[in-house]
Design goal:
single chain; 6 strands; 216 residues; Arc Repressor Mutant, subunit A
Length: 216
Amino acid sequence: MPSCRITVFVADDHAVVRDGLVAILESSHDIKVVGTAATGRQAIEGILALSPQVAILDVSMPELDGIAVTRQILAERPNTAIVILSMHSSAQHVMQALEAGARSYLLKEHAGREIADAVRAVNLGRRHLSGRIAEIVAEGISNRRGANPIASLSNREGQILKLVCDGRSSAEIGQTLGLSPKTVDTYRSRLMHKLQVVDLAGLIKFAILHGLTPLE
């Protein structure tokens, strides 16, 4: 059983919060906390040394904040799934975290009841946002300028965009839709050109703002 548990690292500079999260996670039969840290630099050292499947990072930590830690960790451990904890609920903070590579953004006030579900979701390659965060991000739709870019997408392009943002590889998407991986890559390049984005983070941001992918 232990080998099947999701390994997690928790970084938060408040000992009460950190210990509380550890206690909640350890009470789940399928999750194991392998390390903790109180600063951004300690988090990087611990995560690189222990290679957990999921890293939970407070957005505001001494030495390096959670966003900076996310970027550095994913540069060296791209398969690590990142969960960001924050007191901030602005769309700007959320988008910074998602663009840095985080797959989950939780408000600390809701973390106690959502953290285990978030860990399970990101470990499966999904996203998990606090309910209130999903609402805040959705509000960005009303601030978009110009014509609705959704109208420029074909049904097939929309399908592929959703699957890409769900974390599916070109091979997996091809198998689902009956296409070759090369054809999927062609569709993805066409999508990025139409939507004027340059990378996967841009595609994910577009999909979230336009309601094309679930905010779990």
